[in-house]
Amino acid sequence: MSDLTIVLRSLQTRLSSSVIVVVLVAISAGLLLTILSLKSAGERTFTRGTGNVHMLVSNDGSPLDSVLNGLFYANPPRGPISEERLAALKQSFPWSMFIPTAVGDSYEGFPVVATVPGFLTEFDPVGDGSGWTFAEGRNFEKNFEVVLGAAMARETRLRIGSRILLTHGSGKSREGIDDHGHVHKEYEFEVVGILEPTMTAHDRALFTNLESSWILHAHDRFERDHVHKTVTAADLVPEDRLVTGVLIRLPSRDPRSAPPALISQYERLRRDPTVTVAQPANEIQRLLSIVWSVDILFVAMAAATLISAGVAIFLSMINSMGERRRQVAILRVLGASRPRIFWLVLTESTLVGLVGSVIGAFLAAVLLVVVTRWLGDAYGLAIESKVEPRLAIIVAMGTTLLAAAAGLVPAILAYRTGVARNLRPIG
Fold it and tell me: Are 137 and 147 in contact (CB under 8 A)?
């Protein structure tokens, strides 16, 4: 009889307790792996989402709000930038990229980004030079054309040629409170392009040109004045031509490094009381440093749960020592040496940890899909829902070693078990 068969039969004799311990190990390992994977994927998502932007100008209350609302679409920006202020900003420096955006409208809860065609040609959402790639279709070129992000297209099942109606406003806030959004049934938008995934928040958005968005706003202005008409671009006035943010990039020889003029231009705009300026990469690093302590707390809690699973393995094996001593004595009579007995018990605890960690990896994969989908629906965050192999291996190794350590004392007790005394008839 092989050693593995002996270990499996030993576990089978205590099937209920063995299953409970394996489940506890699986839950603990799965929870730890889920937290670590979410932390790693979240950091990548926020780092990638800022793209190649050097500065983001808006009228939000703080630079961090500006980045979260303007690039991650967490909430509609608070205030607009006027046409006059936008023109002055554009002429204040020879920017290499100057892309205005207007965020605030939606389609079935997905954010609408009204912008210029350069958003999909000059702005690099990941920041690694890969830019945007079209899975189907083309960029928007005229009024009432939209391009869909990959996740948005997948979840709505819209296709090239589909016609949709946008909601002026978000319809409902992310907290579920009605914010008086209304559907513009007067203006149909046609889907002309679908983008490849970028694994950023932009995948959950749809993009159209600014003039289309301004026409929707102008229509509301006419409705308030009780004037019922089909609004066109000719009806727009400066008060309609508003944006909520500007993505700015300065000229640079090396696209991977900050240009020398960045600091002086950032300080100049920061002294302007009419706008809020942010350096997206810096704000994301600030955000990650803020949540770092919370991350450590969650990881510590998950690790403590895993340690409790190790204690459960130890207690389960100690509590079964009365029955185990007789089994050990029989094995000794059949020719098993003390070192072999030691390794058999140690193998049993190690196997419990290994099986629990493998089941925990599958559990983490399911949890990640559920959690990332909820984060996407509730906060618009596009986070990868996959378990990192590197993290899975580290957690599996740690869990297995912890289980082996929990079996050391029972293994030593089994090693010291006497034969004659434990072979006496029971009762």
Answer: yes
Task: Write down the domain spans for the chain.
Answer: 3-44+290-423, 55-278
The whole-number pLDDT of residue 322 equals: 62
pLDDT tens for 5-63 read 777 777 777 778 888 889 999 999 998 898 888 888 777 777 777 889 999 999 998 99
* Mean residue pLDDT across the chain: 84
* pLDDT band of 391, cuts 50, 70, 90: confident
Which carries the bigger pLDDT value, residue 176 or residue 165? 165
3 state SS for the chain: CCHHHHHHHHHHHCHHHHHHHHHHHHHHHHHHHHHHHHHHHHHHHHHHHCCCCCEEEECCCCHHHHHHHHCCCCCCCCCCECHHHHHHHHHCCCCCEEEEEEEEEEECCEEEEEECHHHHCCCCCCCCCCCCCEEEECCCCCCCEEEECHHHHHHHCCCCCCEECCEECCCECCCCCECCCEECCCCCEEEEEEECCCCCHHHHCEEEEHHHHHHHHHHHHHHHCCCCCCCCHHHCCCCCCCECEEEEECCCCCCCCCCCCHHHHHHHHHCCCCCEEECHHHHHHHHHHHHHHHHHHHHHHHHHHHHHHHHHHHHHHHHCHHHHHHHHHHHHHCCCCHHHHHHHHHHHHHHHHHHHHHHHHHHHHHHHHHHHHHHHHHHCCCCCCCCCHHHHHHHHHHHHHHHHHHCHHHHHHHHCCCCCHHHCCCC
What phi and psi values does residue 167 have, to the nearest 5 degrees?
A: -100, 125
Q: How confident is the model at residue 93 (pLDDT cuts 50, 70, 90)?
A: very high
CA-based nearest residue to 244, from 202, 275, 288, 204 = 275
Across the range 70-97, mean pLDDT stands at 91
